[in-house]
UniProtKB/TrEMBL annotation:
Name the record gives this protein: Oxidoreductase
Protein family: Belongs to the GMC oxidoreductase family.
InterPro entries: FAD/NAD-bd_sf, GMC_OxRdtase, GMC_OxRdtase_N, GMC_OxRtase_C
Pro residues bias (residue ranges): 1-16
Residue span of region Disordered: 1-36, 546-573
Native source species: Streptomyces physcomitrii
Source superkingdom: Bacteria
Amino acid sequence: MPPSPANASPTDPPADPAADPAADPAAGTSPGTARTPRTLRADYVIIGGGTAGSVIASRLAEDPELSVLVIEGGPSDLGREEVLTLRRWLGLLGGELDYEYTTTEQPHGNSHILHSRAKVLGGCSSHNTLISFRPLPSDWDEWEAAGAAGWNAAAMDPYFGRLRNNIVRVAKKDQNEIAADWIEAVKSALGVPEVVGFNDRPFEEGVGFFDLSYHPENNHRSSASVAYLHPHLKAGDRPNLRLLLETWAHRLDIAEGRAKGVRVRTAEGEEVCVEAGREVIVCAGAVDTPRLLLHSGIGPRADLKALGIDCVLDLPGVGENLLDHPESVIVWETHGPIPDNSAMDSDAGLFVKRDPEHRGPDLMFHFYQIPFTDNPERLGYERPEHGVSMTPNIPKSRSRGRLYLTSADPEVKPALDFRYFEPAADGSDYDGQTLVDGIKLARKVAAAEPFAKWLKREVFPGPEVTEDAQISELARKAAHTVYHPAGTCRMGAADDRLAVVDPQLKIRGLSGIRIADASVFPTMPAVNPMLGVLMVGEKCADLLRGTPAPAPQAPAQQSTAPHHSRTEEGGDA
Ligand SMILES: Cc1cc2nc3c(=O)[nH]c(=O)nc-3n(C[C@H](O)[C@H](O)[C@H](O)COP(=O)(O)OP(=O)(O)OC[C@H]3O[C@@H](n4cnc5c(N)ncnc54)[C@H](O)[C@@H]3O)c2cc1C
């Protein structure tokens, strides 16, 4: 791994540079030199150099008068081809760069889901498939209706224009023939319009190649770290920005209702106090942000007491409202091999609106150019040598899960109970029925040309599975996640007992500390959430700097009309 220039520019140089883990974060501190607890200081301390954290660090460091320190649990992604190459994303799951969370027993769903969370600079944007959707107007308006004043579509949509990522449509060279034929079959079988440029205009229905945050010429990611941090790490032009890599934040220092800083442990086990002159910003993601709060005594008093953790602030919403985009799968064997070109093997998707009263899409599909059989194989199905998959996905799942601690030991991972496919608040089986509807629609697409000519047979759930109850049971047992957990420290109004942060992203009841990451989502966007997280980061930077937000604009109407404003190559006109 090449050295990272930003690591060599401490804001508060220790007397003995050899004892400074930040001077060489990859190596940490050599055992003989540790002085505990050593103290580091910066104006702003950001916990988590992930998707939102990279944005905020980069934006704050634009002001040379400010010192910014980022604490990141993973190593740098600079020069790591296995991370930077988008198409290698599957190889990152379950490896050394994955925190590997699991779920509790899911009686109505699949208890064997691995919830990958990236342990590397850039966070999950260094791990994921980089499918890039600006949230729909209905998604932001839902946030404001849930108590997030000022987060409506007119106010938030302009932040899309601020994003530094290279957001382009899947390049022509990466557009696989079978995916193109699938798009044609969807159009004729379901009457859904093709969308060329999903981010050009809001939509409710549509099929097409995705926009991705990537560089088509070398298939490199345009992750949060690549877009927001690498230019400065390479140029060395942000001496006020310091990264502490492979360093774990395990407890917030709170005194008299104010966050003073955070206790961290370096790779070598040295305890360090990191003090914030101005504010602490927690950006550790939807799992690790509530985990850190709970271990710091911020959360439901009774739960903390039961584990022997002193309650600093009774905040009952910490860990509640665990959201996700659950999905299942239908798999086909193809007559033979599929052409190999692709951006990341799931380059196209479909949005459907079943309920005319619903605002926005209510059923989504990813199209995979591979047989996605991890869960069917566990149920006894065979993986075909050549195949493809469609994955019915629930944009607005009704399940509301919960994250909680099972031990006061910060090393013990928290429990994640997603409550997948439990009856909805109105008693309905909304989520289960969405999968059934999805499998049936997928079969219609499979029967339509020019896609049908590729397919030899349906492998999972299998053509003999036709009754709704049978489809539902198998689809739920084979359900997986698309790794979108969110909502566990949700934003809300002052009278909302379960809100954890206010619309300024400040933790309610404390000063000097905000949260900015997927955990603050009050509700789940219908689309993939990463751009929403980046936009939360941009808005958080404005709130911290007191800079004006971009001028609000009247949001465009959500439309089902076809769009043709982008060219095929990389999406640029
Ligand atoms: C495999 C996968 C595929 C996905 N595909 C897509 C997609 O195609 N499109 C899309 O829109 N979304 C996708 N997502 C979801 C999206 O990537 C996430 O919602 C988003 O990146 C979350 O950003 P975040 O800032 O909340 O957290 P993260 O990006 O996870 O950042 C958290 C950071 O904090 C660090 N950290 C955590 N705890 C600590 C601690 N205690 N001390 C120090 N550091 C800590 C972590 O190492 C990490 O770098 C995918 C996610 C995954 C995992």
